[in-house]
Task: inverse folding
Protein backbone atom coordinates (compact mmCIF):
# COMPACT_ATOMS: atom_id res chain seq x y z
CA UNK A 1 0.00 0.00 0.00
CA UNK A 2 1.05 3.63 -0.45
CA UNK A 3 2.64 5.95 2.08
CA UNK A 4 0.49 6.64 5.13
CA UNK A 5 -0.30 10.12 6.41
CA UNK A 6 2.12 9.52 9.28
CA UNK A 7 4.94 8.49 6.93
CA UNK A 8 4.31 11.51 4.69
CA UNK A 9 4.38 13.92 7.62
CA UNK A 10 7.52 12.37 9.15
CA UNK A 11 9.37 12.45 5.82
CA UNK A 12 8.39 16.03 5.02
CA UNK A 13 9.27 17.21 8.52
CA UNK A 14 12.70 15.62 8.20
CA UNK A 15 13.15 17.04 4.71
CA UNK A 16 11.88 20.47 5.73
CA UNK A 17 14.53 20.63 8.45
CA UNK A 18 17.14 20.34 5.67
CA UNK A 19 15.40 22.38 2.96
CA UNK A 20 13.61 25.56 4.12
CA UNK A 21 11.69 25.88 0.83
CA UNK A 22 10.08 22.48 1.42
CA UNK A 23 9.16 23.54 4.96
CA UNK A 24 7.64 26.75 3.58
CA UNK A 25 5.59 24.81 1.03
CA UNK A 26 4.22 22.51 3.73
CA UNK A 27 3.43 25.54 5.90
CA UNK A 28 1.55 27.19 3.03
CA UNK A 29 -0.24 24.17 1.53
CA UNK A 30 -0.38 21.67 4.38
CA UNK A 31 0.58 18.01 4.14
CA UNK A 32 -0.50 16.12 1.03
CA UNK A 33 -3.08 13.40 1.49
CA UNK A 34 -2.02 9.78 0.93
CA UNK A 35 -2.40 8.26 -2.54
CA UNK A 36 -2.93 4.59 -1.86
CA UNK A 37 -3.61 1.85 -4.39
CA UNK A 38 -3.92 -1.92 -3.98
CA UNK A 39 -0.90 -4.00 -4.89
CA UNK A 40 -1.20 -6.17 -7.96
CA UNK A 41 -2.43 -6.54 -11.50
CA UNK A 42 -5.44 -4.18 -11.43
CA UNK A 43 -3.37 -1.20 -10.27
CA UNK A 44 -0.68 -1.88 -12.87
CA UNK A 45 -3.36 -2.14 -15.56
CA UNK A 46 -4.93 1.09 -14.34
CA UNK A 47 -1.51 2.75 -14.63
CA UNK A 48 -1.38 1.72 -18.30
CA UNK A 49 -4.91 3.08 -18.84
CA UNK A 50 -3.87 6.39 -17.27
CA UNK A 51 -0.81 7.00 -19.41
CA UNK A 52 -0.83 10.32 -21.28
CA UNK A 53 -4.45 11.17 -20.46
CA UNK A 54 -6.10 13.30 -17.79
CA UNK A 55 -7.21 11.83 -14.47
CA UNK A 56 -10.85 12.29 -15.48
CA UNK A 57 -10.35 10.60 -18.86
CA UNK A 58 -8.50 7.69 -17.26
CA UNK A 59 -11.31 7.21 -14.70
CA UNK A 60 -13.91 7.21 -17.49
CA UNK A 61 -12.03 4.56 -19.48
CA UNK A 62 -11.52 2.43 -16.38
CA UNK A 63 -15.20 2.59 -15.45
CA UNK A 64 -16.17 1.46 -18.95
CA UNK A 65 -13.64 -1.37 -18.85
CA UNK A 66 -14.96 -2.60 -15.51
CA UNK A 67 -18.51 -2.47 -16.86
CA UNK A 68 -17.43 -4.64 -19.80
CA UNK A 69 -15.00 -6.98 -18.03
CA UNK A 70 -16.07 -7.03 -14.40
CA UNK A 71 -14.57 -5.49 -11.24
CA UNK A 72 -10.79 -5.18 -11.49
CA UNK A 73 -10.84 -6.13 -15.18
CA UNK A 74 -9.70 -9.76 -14.60
CA UNK A 75 -6.88 -10.84 -16.94
CA UNK A 76 -8.81 -13.80 -18.36
CA UNK A 77 -11.79 -11.54 -19.20
CA UNK A 78 -9.50 -8.98 -20.83
CA UNK A 79 -7.76 -11.60 -22.97
CA UNK A 80 -11.11 -13.02 -24.07
CA UNK A 81 -12.56 -9.64 -25.04
CA UNK A 82 -12.51 -8.46 -28.68
CA UNK A 83 -10.64 -5.36 -29.82
CA UNK A 84 -13.79 -3.45 -30.81
CA UNK A 85 -15.22 -3.69 -27.30
CA UNK A 86 -11.95 -2.53 -25.74
CA UNK A 87 -11.77 0.33 -28.24
CA UNK A 88 -15.34 1.33 -27.40
CA UNK A 89 -14.25 1.57 -23.76
CA UNK A 90 -11.62 4.11 -24.81
CA UNK A 91 -8.56 1.88 -24.93
CA UNK A 92 -6.35 2.74 -27.90
CA UNK A 93 -4.90 0.01 -30.10
CA UNK A 94 -1.48 0.52 -28.51
CA UNK A 95 -2.84 0.34 -24.97
CA UNK A 96 -4.83 -2.76 -25.88
CA UNK A 97 -1.54 -4.42 -26.76
CA UNK A 98 0.02 -3.33 -23.48
CA UNK A 99 -3.00 -4.49 -21.48
CA UNK A 100 -3.10 -7.89 -23.19
CA UNK A 101 0.64 -8.32 -22.66
CA UNK A 102 0.25 -7.61 -18.94
CA UNK A 103 -2.74 -9.95 -18.63
CA UNK A 104 -0.85 -12.74 -20.37
CA UNK A 105 2.14 -12.35 -18.03
CA UNK A 106 -0.18 -12.50 -15.00
CA UNK A 107 -2.04 -15.58 -16.29
CA UNK A 108 1.22 -17.37 -17.10
CA UNK A 109 2.58 -16.42 -13.65
CA UNK A 110 5.67 -14.95 -15.30
CA UNK A 111 5.24 -11.68 -13.40
CA UNK A 112 4.72 -12.40 -9.68
CA UNK A 113 3.97 -8.96 -8.24
CA UNK A 114 4.36 -10.21 -4.68
CA UNK A 115 8.08 -10.83 -5.24
CA UNK A 116 9.42 -7.43 -6.29
CA UNK A 117 13.10 -6.76 -5.53
CA UNK A 118 13.68 -4.70 -2.40
CA UNK A 119 16.07 -2.38 -4.23
CA UNK A 120 14.08 0.40 -5.93
CA UNK A 121 16.10 0.46 -9.17
CA UNK A 122 15.92 -3.34 -9.42
CA UNK A 123 12.16 -3.19 -8.85
CA UNK A 124 11.82 -0.58 -11.60
CA UNK A 125 13.84 -2.79 -13.95
CA UNK A 126 11.63 -5.75 -13.03
CA UNK A 127 8.39 -3.89 -13.81
CA UNK A 128 9.64 -2.30 -17.02
CA UNK A 129 10.02 -5.76 -18.53
CA UNK A 130 6.28 -5.48 -19.14
CA UNK A 131 5.47 -4.06 -22.57
CA UNK A 132 4.06 -0.56 -22.10
CA UNK A 133 5.39 -0.11 -18.57
CA UNK A 134 8.09 2.55 -18.66
CA UNK A 135 10.01 4.09 -15.81
CA UNK A 136 7.23 6.56 -14.94
CA UNK A 137 4.58 3.83 -14.70
CA UNK A 138 6.88 1.65 -12.59
CA UNK A 139 7.66 4.53 -10.25
CA UNK A 140 3.98 5.42 -9.85
CA UNK A 141 3.18 1.80 -9.00
CA UNK A 142 6.02 1.55 -6.48
CA UNK A 143 4.96 4.79 -4.80
CA UNK A 144 1.17 4.33 -4.74
CA UNK A 145 0.86 0.55 -4.37
CA UNK A 146 4.10 -0.48 -2.67
CA UNK A 147 4.65 2.60 -0.52
CA UNK A 148 8.34 2.86 -1.38
CA UNK A 149 9.69 5.81 0.61
CA UNK A 150 12.29 7.11 -1.81
CA UNK A 151 10.60 6.93 -5.22
CA UNK A 152 11.02 10.13 -7.26
CA UNK A 153 9.10 10.18 -10.59
CA UNK A 154 11.13 13.09 -11.97
CA UNK A 155 9.75 12.57 -15.49
CA UNK A 156 6.24 13.49 -14.35
CA UNK A 157 5.29 16.95 -15.67
CA UNK A 158 3.26 17.80 -12.57
CA UNK A 159 6.20 16.84 -10.33
CA UNK A 160 8.38 19.18 -12.37
CA UNK A 161 5.77 21.97 -12.21
CA UNK A 162 5.33 21.53 -8.46
CA UNK A 163 9.09 21.56 -7.96
CA UNK A 164 9.20 24.76 -10.00
CA UNK A 165 6.78 26.37 -7.51
CA UNK A 166 8.37 24.96 -4.36
CA UNK A 167 11.93 25.93 -5.23
CA UNK A 168 11.05 29.26 -6.89
CA UNK A 169 12.79 28.31 -10.12
CA UNK A 170 12.76 30.52 -13.20
CA UNK A 171 11.40 27.71 -15.37
CA UNK A 172 9.99 24.22 -15.02
CA UNK A 173 12.96 21.86 -14.62
CA UNK A 174 13.67 19.03 -17.02
CA UNK A 175 13.61 15.43 -15.81
CA UNK A 176 17.40 15.49 -15.49
CA UNK A 177 17.31 18.74 -13.52
CA UNK A 178 14.49 17.46 -11.29
CA UNK A 179 16.51 14.35 -10.45
CA UNK A 180 19.58 16.44 -9.65
CA UNK A 181 17.63 18.92 -7.50
CA UNK A 182 16.19 16.14 -5.34
CA UNK A 183 19.30 13.99 -5.14
CA UNK A 184 20.05 15.15 -1.60
CA UNK A 185 16.45 14.59 -0.52
CA UNK A 186 16.87 10.82 -0.19
CA UNK A 187 15.35 8.86 1.55
CA UNK A 188 12.30 11.17 1.60
CA UNK A 189 11.67 11.66 -2.12
CA UNK A 190 8.39 9.73 -2.15
CA UNK A 191 6.76 12.22 0.21
CA UNK A 192 8.44 15.05 -1.72
CA UNK A 193 6.78 13.80 -4.91
CA UNK A 194 3.39 13.84 -3.18
CA UNK A 195 4.11 17.39 -2.06
CA UNK A 196 4.92 18.52 -5.61
CA UNK A 197 1.54 17.21 -6.83
CA UNK A 198 -0.18 18.83 -3.86
CA UNK A 199 1.47 22.20 -4.55
CA UNK A 200 0.89 21.95 -8.29
CA UNK A 201 -2.85 21.51 -7.69
CA UNK A 202 -3.03 24.38 -5.18
CA UNK A 203 -4.07 27.61 -6.97
CA UNK A 204 -3.03 29.73 -3.99
CA UNK A 205 0.67 28.93 -4.53
Result:
Amino acid sequence: MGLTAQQIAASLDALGAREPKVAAAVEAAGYPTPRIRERGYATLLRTIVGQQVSVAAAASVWNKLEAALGPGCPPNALIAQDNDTLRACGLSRQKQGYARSLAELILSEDLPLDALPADDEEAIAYLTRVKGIGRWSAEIYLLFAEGRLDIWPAGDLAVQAGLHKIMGLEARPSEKQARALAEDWSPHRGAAALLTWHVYNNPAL
Q: What stands out?
A: The two ends are 29 Å apart (CA to CA).
